[in-house]
Amino acid sequence: MKVVYNWLKDFVDVTAPPQELASRLALSGTNIAGIENGPHGAVIDAEVSSNRPDCLGHLGIAREVGAIYKLPLKSVSPKPAESAAKTSDAVNVEIQSPELCGRFTARVIRNVKIQPSLKWLKDRLEASGVASISNVVDVSNYVMLELGHPLHTFDYDKVRDHKIIVRRAKPSEKMKTLDGVERQLAPDKDRQLDSGICMISDGDGSRAVGIGGIMGGAETEISFSTKNVLIECAWFEPISIRRAARFLKLHTEASTRFGRGADPEMAELASRRAAELILQLAGGELLAGVVDIYPGKRAPKKLRVTRAEILRVMGADVPDKEVEASLSALGFAPVRIDQNRGAEGSLLAAWECTQPSWRAEVEREIDLIEEIARIYGLDKFPPRLPAARQGAARLPHYEAETRLRDRLIGLGYREILTIPHVAEERDALFRPGGISPARLSNPLSEEANVLRSTGLVTMAAALEWNVNHGQRNVRLFEIGRHYDLTSRKNDEPEPPILTIGATGEAREKNLYDPAREFSFADLKGDLDSIGELAGGFAWRDGGAEWLHAARRGSVVLGANELGSAGQLARRVAEKFKFRQDVFLAELELDPLCTAYLAAKEARRYEPLPRFPAVERDFSLLLPDGTHFSDVVKAIRSLNISEISNIEAADLFRGKNVPAGKYSLLVRVTFQSREATLTDTQIGDYSGKIIAVLEKQLGAQLRAQ
Amino acid sequence: MYRAIMPNVENPTERTLAGLAINDPMAIEELFTSEKVRFDKQLAAKHPDEVNYTLMKNAWLGRKAGVLTLITENWLKSAPPALKPIVGQSLNQLKRHIEESLETFRVAAEKGSEEVASNRDRVDLSLPGVLRPVGSHHLIRQVFQEIEDIFFSIGFSVVEGPEIETPYYNFEALNIPEFHPVRDDMDTFYLELPKGAPTPLLLRTHTSPMQIRTMEKQKPPVRVIVPGKVYRRDNPDATHSFAFHQIEGLAVDTDITFCDFTGTIEYFVQQFFGPGVKTRFRPSYFPFTEPSVEFDVSCPFCGGTGTAAGGGTCSKCKGAAWIELFGAGMVDPAVYGFVNYDAKKVSGFAFGIGIDRLAMLKYGIDDIQIFFQNDVRFLRQFP
Fold first, then answer.
1. Structural domain includes residue A327
2. Cβ neighbours of residue A111 closer than 8 Å, sequence gap 6 or more
3. CA of B181 to nearest chain A CA: how many angstroms apart?
4. CB A44 within 8 A of CB A38
5. Number of domains in chain A
6. Prior bond to B200 cis, omega within 30?
7. Confidence of residue B4 (pLDDT cuts 50, 70, 90)
8. pLDDT for A209 beyond 50
């Protein structure tokens, strides 16, 4: 809403300069987007919130100004000269749908002269950003900007039978609006739906001449040949206007005002004001009286506000005279009704107010308190911190997530955040079988039409972005959610997940070391470092389809399979045009965090050994397919309690190793809690180890 | 004097006392003094280094042919019983002197050798060390954490809620009925429904649904903040992303007033932006708060003057001296009706902080999209 500073002066004798006025308006609830100084003086751009339709006109803004500066509002009472002929003989109005149209007024002016407007009116319209068309049309716009109430003018002679019927739109009804567009006003007959759009029709009601409260029709519009004018100034029900505007995708100045709730009492006054201006600008004679059909007339609401409630909500007092001044200025006509009236500042003070017709949204005591507070000044309520009543709690998995996150960062992974909207076919690359993605019914584009089924699709995209921007060595993680309306587990449609992605070099070349590419072993080691926090992961053959068949595994924690990890399959990598190996993992977060807490609770100190440890290396030739875990299992089966550790120290194939075999150097650490182990004991254990490996795994001991 | 007595003796330690014709204590002391002088002269002539140290040590303290060994063998062992104590005493004195002098020489030698080495092998401090790759928290996460910590410190618990919501929680229970004009400002993503879904599903347009979910579960006192992702169907540009981040706050109790609300917000602002930053509350409108406010902070970058340090208009507040931060207010009593709270007995406040905007403001980021591109060149800037 463009507020023309000089126009305000028609209603209130404001002396504050525009800049200061704008700032005071902003601090009392009228948001100000800016001020422009144009050829017609200062124009304040006010962003009126949707609950204040009364401020969509200069009169309403002037009322605010009056309340702020304690200045009286000038009364608006146009008294246009009327001829002897009566309006009621010239036009007939019938409201068939009072639930959509609560009031309809009509006035008729004969023998007008349609011509361009006078300069003063053109200037004000121009300052408000409205184009001037002709005097009569301009008047309807002018009155709307002045009083906030939209109105419409018809060419009286084109209205059939001089009769107006206000009714609901009929199935499949169409009409051509002022803007020349042929519009469908209701769904087709066969859908049997009532759009609830209010139509202004003429004659027997079969022809629509306007969409009530939104836009007039083309067939009855004012032209330069118009002689006689019919002024419509009505009131339409706000919700039906909003529905209609949305249904028609037609948002106009009128629909905005009626949709937010115009003032029904203003309809007749605005019509009279328009008549006055038309007589002034276009001449002609105004017929006597007004046709005013007002089925929606309501008695004004009574509201009450008490000092006790002001104190309870606001926490600080407002003096009686400030309460009364602000409510009076805004039109609420406060009257003290408590027994202590006359006593300043009484705690029992109560005021009865009358809801003005232009403030339908002020219905409750709290609404009145807001009115008082905003005019009094929000800065007059002293800030303080509320008393704490109980301890504060973090999220249930805050500690576990923090530890995980910190460890991942220590391992060199950078945290990312992504938008879960992805293209369906990309999502499908990673989506587990049997899951249908959560699909948006109104996506912004086909590139973002489903919510991701896994975090891998967005992780791969983040790696892709970096590689394409010259960053080839990247390690990332995300703690996020994936989405699934068909609910794979526990009815949780958006379970939290940890996603990891890595590509490029694990170690970049530097002055002291050569470069080394990231490998599956790096991924496994990093994941096991996380697993350590939660009691340790187990790895199983298998893993998701999107992974390289030879370099993947599933990660198991206790009885839960948490997810998959490995190298991205060629087939999928090609879709992303990756020219380097990419490693990905995704783990369910909730069981991991739960296990973290359990592991933390179960953890106990283990005394450090007092006797020295002894290492023995076993260089083994093993048949291909024999796993290191088989070796460990075989050695453990000996139940030698002095074996404290078994590790794989070296591994190779090829030269000097027979086909079908590979060489594994196994390092076994012996340590006793009771005594230093003797050479004989170690020799004995070693013999047993060699024997069991030979027997169970067909291992051969290689010459050292 | 010594020379006068023993002018022709080349090396007296190779002879016995008898051979030197010495038989009184005075002469013995003179003899030892002359050895001491000889040692001191030799040592003083040598540059302190490892080689000279070993040389001198072997010459004087060497077990087989060192001077002291010779003295022990030639002078002490064969000395007449009457002179033995005085020879022994003098020998010990000489030995202590040699040992102490050599130790001082050794320390000097060591220091000297380090100096030589340091000129050759000194580290070049301008060369990089070995940098192990380290990760980083996402900037948005850092801001979340900072804000959570501020509110946690004044008794706010942290809760989270679903991103996929129903219209009831996202709108209706927040006093935003269908066709309410505010819905037009929050363009909403809807989901295609699985079969048998009882209600439409949408992506939450704000974190406010958790106000309702929290109050449904819990009786007052309530003090919670809700960090999370929210979605609005806006076309992406430098200042719009269809996903962004918010922190919702809610406090409800029997005695929460507007003063408690502004005090809490002011505390947050001063913790986050610094103690000199002022707050300003402007009346506004949200369906789920009454009174509603938008609040501004005095621009932390120009000190609330609107003028940049070097003159000219402050680029952060564009000369306005104030920066609009976010919307908030006292919880509208109508909302309590949806969660069976007695609006006559309880009151409270709620706010919603836009995290992305706050981070952009604080760190001078001009494109919201960069948060979601996850370019490591960006991530690296906030270690």
1. yes
2. A227, A228, A283, A284, A285
3. 6
4. no
5. 5
6. no
7. very low
8. yes
Q: Two tokens at B3?
A: 């020379």
Name the pairing type of β-strands A350-354 and B164-165: unpaired
Q: Taking Cα atoms as reference points, which of B207, B219, B161 lies closest to residue B339?
A: B219
Query: A402 and A461: one domain?
Result: yes
Distance CA A314, CA B258 (A): 5
Provide, for chain A, the percentages of residues in helix, strand and coil under a 3-state DSSP scheme, each rounded to the nearest 5.
Answer: 35, 25, 40
B235 closest CB neighbour out of A389, A444, A481 = A444
Same-domain check for residues A30 and A171: no
Same structural domain for residues A244 and A311?
no
Q: Which domain holds residue A548?
A: 398-602
Measure CB to CB from residue B251 to each of A370, A386, A408 and give the nearest one: A386
Q: Which of A239, A363, A366 is the best substitution to test chain B (most B C-beta atoms within 10 A)?
A: A366
A470: Cβ contacts below 8 Å, ≥ 6 apart: none
Residue with tokens 């590139």: A447
Cβ contact A644:A682 at 8 Å: no
Same domain as A334, residue A272: no
Amino acid at A342: G
Assess contact for B224 and B201: CB atoms under 8 A: no
Mean pLDDT of chain B: 89
Q: Are A108 and A230 in contact (CB under 8 A)?
A: yes
Instruction: Reduce the DSSP state of residue A573 to 3 states and report it.
Output: helix
Give the span between the Cα atoms of A25 and A33, in whole angstroms.
Answer: 11
**Does residue B151 register a pLDDT over 90?**
yes
User: Between chains, do B280 and A419 touch, taking CB under 8 Å as contact?
Assistant: no
Confirm if A327 and A362 have CB atoms less than 8 A apart: no
A274 in a structural domain: yes
Q: Judge whether B152 and A392 are in contact, CB under 8 Å.
A: yes
Q: Are residues A427 and A316 in the same domain?
A: no
Residue type, A254: A
Which residues of chain A neighbour B241 with C-beta distances below 8 Å? 419
Residues A455 and A554 in one domain: yes
**Domain termination residue (choose one: A234, A265, A293):** A293
Asked if residue A435 belongs to a domain, the reply is yes
DSSP-assigned letter for residue B147: H
Instruction: Please give the Cα distance from A8 to A73 (Å, whole number).
Output: 10
Average pLDDT over residues B371-380: 96
C-alpha A396/C-alpha A378 separation (Å) is 38
| DSSP, res A385 | P
Element containing residue B65 per DSSP (H, E): none
Q: Domains for chain B: give ranges and CATH numbers.
A: 2-118 (no CATH), 139-379 (3.30.930.10)
Query: Which string of DSSP letters, residue by residue, matches B59-111?
Result: HHH-TTT-HHHHHIIIIITTS-TTTHHHHHHHHHHHHHHHHHHHHHHHHHHHH
Judge whether A565 lies within some domain. yes
Same domain, A308 and A326: yes
Q: Is B13 on the interface with A (CB under 8 A)?
A: no
Lowest mean pLDDT among A132-146, A151-165, B28-42: B28-42
State the CATH number of the domain containing residue A106: 3.50.40.10
Q: Which residue of B has its CA nearest to A483?
A: B164
User: B198 to chain A nearest CA, in Å?
Assistant: 13
We report the CATH number of the domain holding residue A635 as 3.30.70.380
Which of A69, A94, A122 delimits the end of a domain?
A: A69
A49 and A109 together in one domain = no
Asked if the Cβ–Cβ distance from B258 to A486 is below 8 Å, we say no
* Cβ–Cβ gap B255/A387 under 8 Å: yes
pLDDT in the model for residue B5: 47
What is the complex's ipTM, to 2 decimals? 0.89
Residue B280's φ and ψ, nearest 5 degrees, are -140, 135
Tokens coding B36:
């001491």
Residues A122, A123, A126, A127: is their CA dihedral positive or negative?
negative
Handedness of CA A232, A237, A239, A243 (dihedral sign): negative
Q: For position A16, which CATH number holds?
A: 3.30.56.10
